[in-house]
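Async update (no meeting this week)

Hi team, since we skipped the sync, here's where things stand on the single-chain job. The sequence we agreed to prioritize is pasted below, unchanged from the tracker. I ran it this morning and attached the output directly underneath so nobody has to dig for it. Comments welcome in thread, and please keep replies under the output.
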Amino acid sequence: MKTRTMIYEAKHAEMQNHTAVVASALSSFVSLNAEDVEKVMYLLGDMELTRIVISDNSARIVYDSTDNSGNVGKYAMFPEIVAAIKGKVTFRFAFSSSAVRSCASIPIMCGSKQTGAVYIYEYATESADLLMALRKVLMNISAGALIMAVLIAFLLSGVLRKRLLSIVYGIKSIANGEYAYRINVKSRDEFDELAGEFNILADRLEQTEQIRQRFVSDASHELKTPLAGIRLLTDSIIQNENIPPELQREFVLDIGREAERLTRITEKLLALTRLDIKREDASYPLNVKDVITEAMKMLNMLAENKSVTLQCELDDDCVIFANSDDIHEIVFNLVENAIKYNVENGTVRTILYSKNNRVHVVIDDTGIGIPEEDIPHIFDRFYRVDKSRTNEIGGSGLGLAIVKDTVEKHNGIIKVQRRQTGGTRFEVSFPLYSDNTGEDGGKEVGE
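Output:
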């Protein structure tokens, strides 16, 4: 279609040029007659046109290149000549498999006066042959392009099907519990982006499954010990009919202690579950000093029983956006551990201050401390530094895991280090509430 348009435009320009040349050559005559026009056309030479007809202003032929003797003097009632006498410029174009036919007409003007019309006609078989050849070439090219497109589409569909099947296979593998399955990502198109997201999801599922398995294993181990103790004590009571009342009371007390231990483990497991679910809690501006003061009241009795001194250095206006239950849980756990794992006549110092738009809570103790190799693991669930010691005290290895999760829940940071002079130092920091930004407690805390 583009080729035909190109030939049409080229032929249109060519025919307009021929008619303009003839009309210009005859524009000097006030009236047209056969003799004058014959001379002018002889001077113009062969224009390689099939026919040239020139008429006066009444449509009477004064020149015909095909038959001067027979047509001169007759009226030319060609639509193109009639239109040209009316002052119009015309062009017609027709194409068939054998030839290209084109004709054009234009008025002849002598100054502002119209004196006649020029009509030219061309019958060109060469142009038709060229157009047909081009059409054939284009058809061959189109057919080749179509075949190539089909082949490419077939190849692409195979590649896309293979890549889709790899994703489907990966989904089925994950569904069957094969969490280690990963899709190989080679490029950066949409399918590889989808594969990358699948791999990220698989990583998270595998990590979650590992945590779940470890959690179930550790929880089963932790619960098994007190349950076995209770079973052993109850069997001892049942199997000994003449057991002394004092020994029976001691066994019952031991059963009560193991039950309390089970209760503590269960409560902490539930607390960790709530944190894992990441439920929305109602947070509000909270003065940390009030929470610490309340927690210390509850821990005073434990400290007295352990011969440990509690010291507090609490600044005012240390406000964060949280809720009192969570912050109480953090402070209570850290201070309780500092008391339990302290030495006789030891000290636990709790410091509260604000600095650089953060609220800092420091718990410093003079206790037995934590070995350097254990510090990276103390926030892991069920991890205990000294199992024999924690069994005596009643630790479950869940308290610090709860503390870390709760701190991070409120955009906080927790750090731990072994004191050079003995004991452990925990530091927790939270963003200062926005109404108090710009306040700087500026208090440095040393050993």
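Quick observations from my side:
DSSP finds eleven helices and twelve strands in the chain.
Residues 387-394, 436-447 have pLDDT under 50 and may be disordered.
Reply here if anything looks off.
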